[in-house]
Amino acid sequence: MKKIAIVDYGLGNIFSIKQALKNCGVEPLVTESAREISQSDGILLPGVGAFNEAMKRLKSTQLDQVLIEQSQKGKPLLGVCLGLQLLFSKSHEFGEHLGLGLIEGEVIKFPETFAGAKLNTPFIGWNKLHINASQLDNPLIKGLTETDKFYFVHSYHAKPYDETCVIASCNYLEYNYPAIVQKNNICGIQGHPEKSAEQGLLFYKNWLNSI
After folding, report:
1. Is 194 a catalytic residue?
2. Which residues are CB-neighbours of 171 under 8 A, at least 6 positions away?
3. Does the predicted model carry a pTM greater than 0.90?
4. pLDDT, tens digit (0-9, with 9 covering 90-100), for 196-207
């Protein structure tokens, strides 16, 4: 059975994610141990809350270096919600703060208005995926369609410098933002698959099958 490490640094829907992965046929290990993370087959980085606080917690236990080293060795790493944002170079949430730097880009806040409409934040609710035409054969989204909705709660979103890493996006009214990103063995999803019914479990299964 695949060994999946869920990084426990005090911020994240760990119980819900653990149950979702168990429903996908694996027994994940919730851990803050560098050794256990290093011995895993794949790493899941959860996250709920503020970017800077999350990075402080990862750095205080040197888990940031563990994640960087393991991902550079080619180990699959999935960031969920805030976990996706932490993969990027920096965030502008409550100032400017450095992230893990595994995907080049930044994390920015939704604009207050776009195309004449007001964008209230945080955005809370269900949103459809818009799969990029070049990514239709990507194993991460196998079986997913543009009628599938995922659950989101966020005020900030990633802005990759290389847009080819965007697998799928969502629209908040007419404002487009990345929903699923991937750079080689590193990927992330802005929504919460563990709260997104069968399509959420399918996304997790696809990631697990890619390991």
Report:
1. yes
2. 127, 128, 130, 177
3. yes
4. 999 999 999 999
Catalytic choice (24, 93, 187, 192) = 192
Is-catalytic flag, 24? no
How many domains are contained in the chain?
1
The answer to whether 154 and 175 have CB atoms below 8 angstroms apart is no
* Cα 161 to Cα 163: distance, rounded to the nearest angstrom: 6
Catalytic, out of 24, 157, 170, 194: 194
pLDDT attached to residue 60: 95
Residue 70 belongs to domain with CATH number: 3.40.50.880
Catalytic residue list contains 165: no
Alpha carbons 103 and 184: distance in angstroms, whole number = 10
- Rounded to the nearest 5 percent, the helix, strand and coil shares of the chain are 30, 35, 35
- Write down the catalytic residue from 81, 165, 170, 187: 81
Q: Is residue 169 within 8 Å of residue 130, measured between CB atoms?
A: yes
Domain span including residue 131 = 4-209
Kindly state the helix (H) or strand (E) to which residue 45 belongs, with its residue range. strand 42-45
- At 31-77, the pLDDT tens digits run 999 999 999 999 999 998 899 999 999 999 999 999 999 999 999 99
